[in-house]
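HUMAN: Can I see a protein plus its fold?

ASSISTANT:
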Amino acid sequence: MSRSEAPTGATGWPLLATAVTVFAALCVALPSVWAGHAGISDTHVYERYGDAIEKGAVPYRDFRPEYPPGALAVFVVPSLLTDSRLSYERAFGVEMALLGAVCVGVVFLSLRALGVPPVHLAAGVGAQAVAPLLLGPLLLTRFDLFPAALVAAALLLALTGHDRSAGGVLGAAISVKLYPIVLVPILAAWAWRRRGRHEALLVLGFCAVVAACIFLPFALIAPSGLAWSVWDQLGRPLQIESLGAAILLALHQFGMPLGWSSSHGSQNLTGTVAAVASASTTVVQAGALLWIWTRFARRASVTEAELVGAATASLVAFVALGKVLSPQFLIWLLAGVALVRARSQWAPLGLLVTACALTRGWFPHLYHLLVYTFDPLATWLVVARDLTLVALLAVLLRQGRERARSS
């Protein structure tokens, strides 16, 4: 279907209104978020950062946030509006719900820009709308909807021909959480293939300038603190839910000894075997990303569908093959997978929904058993989830080859 055949406003806008309403209702139907007992939550960390800034402390100099400086905005706003732990958690939940509604709207506009058939429009928007059902309280007790909304907005801008603005928004996303940097080569190649090298350099420039404007003040005020924050993210060990750790946990069920410790804000496997698994998965992750970027850049021509496919494959490769795979990382994938347009949209959506369901199978109620006892049920759920994400990556790569051949 061409863009001119995209669903009209007469049929599309009621769908958007319904999707936003469903998303809001499902957010409200997460009582543990609003009662302040959402199990394993990071809001107490965000509150500590937000309260410190409210009292005049300078981030990275007077205290050391573990996140990039762009994330600080969503931490401090609830602190400015509230005066207790419970009210902070509620305000933060509302903040994330609003960002989630933005994601629903951006996915809707992106699918219309792609000119998908009505059934695919409904499926893609619907998948984003039921995110609270798929991920539960996790969705509103982490700040990952913030970078996810920015990444989705950058893709929408690229799809609608605003490549430089897309680069700038992507730079803002990188300043919030570092993972969107894997999309920089995709956006640069997209601009180059369509408008030439000069446009690609401008896209890179907009991205770098926006990110620098957010990072630079803190780099000047507290260079060591900011450097520690970045290294704390890049230098993390093998987190217990990652693919490499899942393989080791599976081997442990057959007698292989394992150890763990807490650091970098997560629980991680320790020892030589864990270090080898961490290095191996990092090499595989880097190789997969380089292959996706190179293949996309070398195509004779690129389409909007190929842009979305390459961008989503990059995100899935980063998540599925990384040495850290926290449950909230699935939030990063929702919008991209919802936008994938191929002969079959259902396989990627089905695999992502399955990954979310498997995650809810152990998180949060079996998480401590996984950590302290390497619980068999939790272990096999983690293994199944991680392999499901690998299968999702394989499907996206296969669909990318099919699109390349057809174009």
Notes: The chain is about 70% helix and 0% strand. The CA atoms of residues 175 and 225 lie 15 Å apart. The radius of gyration is 21 Å.
